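Write out the 3D structure for:
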Amino acid sequence: MTLRLIPLFPFFLVNLVSGLTRISLGTYVAATALGIIPGTFVFANAGRQLGSINSLSDVASPAVLGAFGLLALFALVPVLYRKFRGKA
């Protein structure tokens, strides 16, 4: 599930490597479903906000800036993961 939460790893590689392990299909499906939900919401929100831009002034609206902020936070997940994993 951690590999799905971190956008650093491409899904097709995770799929290939998972097929080489002894993980059960049920566990794989459940971890995939739970792991991709946060990223899906972040990207869908960003797309919705970008689709609502009608003029140049809409780019600086709080909703669009908030969507970009969520994308930035989501991009920091690998960095935070490495930082906290190293201390554990």
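The chain has a mean pLDDT of 82.
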